[in-house]
Specification:
Oligomer: single chain
Strand order of the largest sheet: 7-4-6-5-9-8
Bound molecules: adenosine monophosphate, magnesium ion
CATH class of the largest domain: Alpha Beta
Structural class: alpha/beta
Radius of gyration: 30 Å
CATH superfamily of the largest domain: MoaB/Mog-like domain
Length: 436
């Protein structure tokens, strides 16, 4: 059922980057707002074509290719929500002493007749015997032989009875196409008795790091060199998104090696993510190779961290792979991934609702900022004495300070037009929960 080769990322070859740029009002690759980046990317990619059926246990984190229609009602019968005694609510509120005429167990229907003044002992989940609509919980009863004394109290007709179809009705859309199958959705599919689901193809993402100063793990440290952290943060974020990942290592600043890496990545993946080598002053071959092999735009984004970024497509045979050339700095990589790459990949995965929810928290510090760019500061969200959310920065906001991403539990988003935030001002925070 699964296909080993990359799915055709771009069914109908879309517009060139230049054409997309022309359609966007005020598109300036040298000064793009974060919103303009998102608008551009939305035009640049399409959801992957195709679908496959997978067993439910393999469907976790996959995206539904079509609506799941409920083949049955859940629950399939009216049943008891408590262990207790089922009776007819007609006799409320007077019902006090009832005669027990049988026991209804979960898993099989109790067969018999229940008259006025009678009841059936019933277990949680057992089908409600015909004509009975109310359950008094065991705790509110006293049993005396075949009689049961009820403390009716606040009991109302229909209490402690679950209605047939109250979770889902037969024929109803249980889950919509585009839903990511998290644990709750998988459980819901199982509750419908379905063992297979139709899902979108998994998005295949190849990534590599560039830079002559970048060391792979296992290599001996040397002067001026740093260990590659970007491949690990990118791998983790892709893995959390349910992508299939292809790690192409660190690629030296050598035209032949770079060409080989891009070609292999384009042949095997729907998306290529690189880090490093895209800033203005770069003297290396990464940008040259991107330009040579594909339709690529080099942007300067009005944001901090993460100003330079390359995007485009690298054709390979009859298809092409989407390219993200992220900056090299470790925090910039994570921020540009969360802000731009993630929603773009979600769109390619066919997911609905890709915008990240932002929480509001009161700033505990003055956050100096000029309007005209989006700033992402690493924040620690907690609760103040009044029970309100508050946020402080992790301190040093350098774009290489990866420890700040570990300390933080969210990214404070200071929007494009926003100015300095004062202590106590409400600021938006993109929480990491579920992403990092
Ligand atoms: P670049 O964008 O190539 O100019 O890189 C900017 C900074 O990020 C430089 O200090 C690089 O050493 C650093 N850097 C680039 N790639 C990586 C990586 N894979 N892991 C850690 N740091 C990196
Ligand atoms: Mg570099």
């Amino acid at each position: 059922m699964t296909d080993a080769s990359p799915s055709s990322a771009l069914p109908a070859e879309p517009a060139t980057l230049a054409q997309i740029g022309q359609q966007l009002a005020g598109y300036d690759p040298q000064a793009l707002s974060a919103d303009a980046v998102l608008a551009f990317l939305e035009q640049m990619v399409q959801p992957l074509a195709g679908a496959e059926s997978v067993p439910l246990l393999q469907a976790l984190d996959r995206v539904l290719a079509e609506d799941v229609i409920s083949p049955l009602s859940v629950p399939p019968h009216d049943n008891s929500a408590m262990d207790g005694y089922a009776f007819c609510g007609d006799s409320l509120p007077e019902a006090q002493r009832l005669q027990v005429v049988g026991t209804a167990l979960a898993g099989k229907a109790w067969v018999g007749q229940v008259l006025q003044g009678q009841c059936v002992k019933i277990m949680t989940g057992a089908i409600m015997p015909p004509g009975l609509d109310t359950v008094v919980p065991q705790e509110l009863t006293q049993r005396d032989g075949d009689l049961v004394q009820i403390t009716a109290g606040l009991l109302q007709r229909g209490d402690n009875r679950r209605l047939c179809g109250e979770d889902l009705m037969q024929g109803q859309v249980a889950l919509q196409a585009g839903t990511r199958l998290g644990p709750a959705a998988c459980g819901l599919v199982a509750s419908l008795g379905l063992s297979q689901v139709r899902v979108r193809p998994r998005l295949k993402v190849a990534y590599f790091s560039t830079g002559d100063e970048i060391l792979s793990l296992g290599e001996a440290p040397r002067e001026g060199a740093v260990y590659d952290s970007n491949r690990y943060t990118v791998h983790g974020m892709l893995h959390h998104m349910g992508c299939e990942v292809l790690d192409l290592g660190v690629v030296r600043d050598d035209p032949a090696l770079l060409e080989g890496a891009f070609t292999q990545a384009a042949a095997q993946a729907d998306v290529i993510i690189t880090s490093g080598g895209v800033s203005v002053g770069e003297a290396d071959f990464t940008k040259t190779m991107m330009k040579k092999l594909g339709d690529v735009a080099f942007w300067r984004i009005a944001m901090r961290p993460g100003r330079p970024m390359a995007v485009g497509r690298i054709p390979q045979g009859d298809r092409s792979a989407v390219l993200f050339g992220l900056p090299g700095n470790p925090v910039a990589v994570m921020v540009t991934f969360l802000a731009f790459v993630r929603p773009t990949l979600q769109r390619m995965m066919g997911m609905q609702a890709t915008a990240l929810p932002l929480l509001k928290a009161r700033s505990q510090e003055v956050l100096r900022k000029k309007p005209g760019r989006t700033e992402y500061q690493r924040g620690i969200v907690s609760r103040n004495a009044q029970g309100e959310l508050q946020v402080q920065t992790t301190g040093n906001q350098g774009s290489g300070v990866l420890s700040s991403m570990v300390q933080a539990n969210g990214l404070m988003v200071l929007h494009h037009d926003q100015a300095t935030a004062q202590v106590g001002d409400w600021v938006d925070v993109m929480m990491f929960e579920g992403h990092l």
